[in-house]
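Batch job 17 of 40 flagged for manual review because the log was empty.
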Amino acid sequence: MSSAWLKYYYGAWQSFYQLSWPVRFLFEIVFFAGLLCLALWGLRILADKCKLRIRLAKVWCIIVKETVYILGRDNKWAVAIDNRMIDWLQKKTEEDASKRNHPRRRILLAIIVIAIYLGAVFVDLPFSRYVSEEYLSGAENCKAFFQQIETFFSKGCEQYPPLFVKREDVEETIAAEEAETEPGETEPVYIQLNDEGKAGANIRSEPDLSDDGNIVGRVNENSQILYLQECIYDGERYWLRVYDTMDGVEGWLSGKLVDGGQLEEIVAQENEN
């Protein structure tokens, strides 16, 4: 792929990543389902032009008839099977396969697509907060799997600017770059999760573990988590106020899910302030 096309390809991914995960995955699964349907349609056209179905039917008929002849010779059941195979081949030969509809196949494909979509975005649905974390792990793994595929196709996009941007956003960015740096302004800090956090962690609206109803989002090793420069201690653990840039969720993350070295730096900086 030429550098010019790379610029547009990865720029589109940069803009695409500004959407929330459920919306992104909806576009992705519809796109790939469309490609699958197009490929199957092409194969069906090719099979009809080459008369592949009829030829396969003839081969199958010959195999069955020869097997029945070897096993049954002139027995009545062998003759009956032989006659049935002849009738079946005749029916297949007269059948216009290209004009046949298969609504059941389309319905089955739609059901599979919907099931995959719901499995991947389940942790982002409102009612998922009422499900115990141990049951959410499977859905979290499903989401992580498809996000890894998404990351594979978009790898390297961070080197390119977004393809689509709001004009007012560009003006604000230019103004911010031209303005003097405010005293005490710090560089953005992105949270590094430990092994437990990478497997899946909750973002809560309040720094409280006793209420699963305050879960507003989930993050994992593929998430980009921005630290919002606020840290509190509840007597048992530190809580960090964060923002999930990929899903647009803001809330509190338990410090026990953050890399130990980074947590120490954040706490030390908080104590200095």
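Reviewer: the log was empty due to a logging misconfiguration, but the result itself is present. The chain has a mean pLDDT of 81. Unflagging and moving on to job 18.
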